[in-house]
Amino acid sequence: MPGYSTRKLDLTIGGHPWRLRVLSDLQQFADPDGHGERLGISSAQWSLFGQVWPAGLVLAHAMHRATFNGERILELGCGIGLASLVLQQQEADIVASDVHPLAEPFLAYNAALNALPALHYRQLRWDVPLPTLGRFDVIIASDVLYQRGSAELVNDVIARHAHDDAQVWVTDPGRGQAARFSRLMEAQEYAVESINCPVDDGDSAPYRGAVLRYGRGTARRLAQ
């Protein structure tokens, strides 16, 4: 037994059915060797990676609707990685990343569960540079601005790994750091726009957070 329980979750994105293995609930916890704790993941935070949160669902729908043409894409804090799986299904050049020690095996399992090849994955701590990760044309993230200081951390990761003409997509449910993050991005010469992205056609309960798209260089026109 792994020390935690899971359940299967069925979703539909753009008419395409998805089945995901997620943690049974937010009470799950298993860190017998202290690996998560050494990475800075507390017992209260441990289970957060293992759910599909509203902002993550919206990002997945946004990626389904987006058009990319060979751009190299990075997802930050992927958790279950639904947006990355959607991009993998579209044969995009996607690299998923997270700090949680179980993000990679869950991502691999869910790719196989949906008859997809394994995704490229890198474990990434936002406070530790990883030069071998390289740079990307598009960086995406959902609900990553969740605590004081997170805007600075995510901004720094983007500064290290975004090409000069990159675009950045962030779905944010309104945890209070988005304005700070946008100011930091503007200091990097990104323009920002808030775009509408319903979770499905005819949805009667639209997402109440923001879908923020930032553009710089030749991608700047996307956000003007």
From TrEMBL:
MF terms in GO: methyltransferase activity
One GO-annotated biological process of the protein: methylation
PANTHER family: HEPATOCELLULAR CARCINOMA-ASSOCIATED ANTIGEN (PTHR14614), PROTEIN-LYSINE METHYLTRANSFERASE C42C1.13 (PTHR14614:SF132)
UniProt name for this protein: Methyltransferase domain-containing protein
Gene3D superfamilies: Vaccinia Virus protein VP39 (3.40.50.150)
The keyword Nucleus is assigned to this record: no
Organism name: Agrilutibacter terrestris
SUPFAM superfamilies the UniProt entry points to: S-adenosyl-L-methionine-dependent methyltransferases
Keywords per UniProt: Methyltransferase, Transferase
Pfam families: Methyltransf_16
